[in-house]
Amino acid sequence: MIKEQKPKILTLVGFYLPGYKAGGPLRTIANMVEHLNDYEFWIITRDRDLGDESPYEEIKPDKWQRVGNAMVHYLSPERCTIRRLAVLIAETSYDVLYINSFFDPFFTVRPLLARKLGLLPNKPVIIAPRGEFSEGAIKIKRHKKHLFIKLAGLIRLYANVVWHASSTHEAQDVLRVLGMGSGTIHVALDLPSRKSLIASGVSPQAESADAVTRVVFLSRISPKKNLDYALKALSKVKQKILFNIYGPAEDQSYWNRCQETISQLPANISVKYWGAVHPDQVSSIFNAHDLFFFPTRGENYGHVIAEALSVGTAVLLSDQTPWRDLQSEHLGWDLPLENIDEFARIIEEYAIMPIEEKLAWRKDIISKTTKRLSKNETIEANRSLFMSVVNK
């Protein structure tokens, strides 16, 4: 009996395992590989993690190799040319080309230029903007971005592609920014990691005997993640707060500005910076904190939000993520960034909440999040994303 061949998804993403500093897109692809075992994922990426000068020790650069359930090709810097990338894509048999950014100059713009010049096979292309079109994200370097969008439209660089939106909100963002017909957009929520599902059974962290409320920020330190906003909100809080910051300082000038703000915080706000953390540490970090404060300017999913909730840590977010109406679900809060005083007020209220109430809430969050992350509809939506273009 001849074994049916799985459809092959050739995936372009700036960073992949064993890296972890780049956050969302990397983890989204890794989770797809975990869940969608009826597809073959072949991944082209860089040979080093975000901000690193040296390649991963355990990989072979510029060669295909198996990493978990995927085949991965790690490009060394000298091979990161439009010609080399076009040749590599053209030499690889695949059914769908899956691109994970709109603006990435190497892993998006160059392949699409190569396609425009007829250097790539005539195969379906799916592009996932990964939150780049959210209102907050598009405002960062907005003039440069709008100029690029206009030029790309003039040469029809993104013609005949399918857009992968990770939520209905992101689908609306695509329509708002690009002004295209909705028929080219497929909505499929990002998949949680299997570790998040397992972590949902972690017991709630016992409250410490002191009166300090432990608040955590865990993300890349860049303008999009909005750490400076979190610090300004905390400056308005009167209760005693320990604010722990985890994540790589991706933008050093931005981090310098954040440090200046930290130096001006009142005495009741204590801040510690711990640097980048490995994914294996994330659940235990959230479990040791009362509240995850993440006023991001835009997330297409927010894996870190799922990880916080999976161990019972309440979240205080901006309304620029797919995690909406959290207060009605009793999982936390999602607020507009226009009202910084409201963020401060909620932190104040949470800080004075009785310990017994916090512990009961953690258990309830774990129960609700386990059900939310276990929905089979999300897996089926991701599966149909690729099958719809393969069948065409």
Summary, kept brief:
InterPro entries: Glyco_trans_1. This is Glycosyltransferase. The chain is built from 15 helices and 14 strands.
Topology:
Elements: E1 8-12, H1 24-35, E2 40-46, E3 64-67, E4 70-75, H2 82-91, E5 96-99, H3 105-116, E6 125-127, H4 135-138, H5 142-154, E7 162-165, H6 168-178, E8 185-187, H7 194-199, E9 213-218, H8 227-234, E10 241-246, H9 252-263, E11 269-273, H10 279-287, E12 291-294, H11 303-310, E13 314-318, H12 326-329, E14 332-335, H13 340-351, H14 355-373, H15 376-391
Parallel strand pairs: 1-2, 1-5, 2-4, 5-6, 6-7, 7-8, 9-10, 9-12, 10-11, 12-13, 13-14
Antiparallel strand pairs: 3-4
Structural commentary:
- Helix 11 (303-310) links the parallel strand 12 and strand 13.
- The chain has helices spanning 24-35, 82-91, 105-116, 135-138, 142-154, 168-178, 194-199, 227-234, 252-263, 279-287, 303-310, 326-329, 340-351, 355-373, 376-391; strands spanning 8-12, 40-46, 64-67, 70-75, 96-99, 125-127, 162-165, 185-187, 213-218, 241-246, 269-273, 291-294, 314-318, 332-335.
- It is α/β, with parallel strands linked by helices and 392 residues long.
- It has 2 domains: 8-191 and 375-391, Rossmann fold, CATH 3.40.50; 195-373, Glycogen Phosphorylase B (Rossmann fold).
- The radius of gyration is 21 Å and the shape is globular.
- Helix 2 (82-91) packs across helix 3, helix 8 runs parallel beside helix 9 (252-263) and helix 8 packs across helix 13.
- The model is unreliable at 199-209 (pLDDT under 50).
- Strands 3-4-2-1-5-6-7-8 form an 8-stranded mixed sheet.
- It has 15 helices and 14 strands.
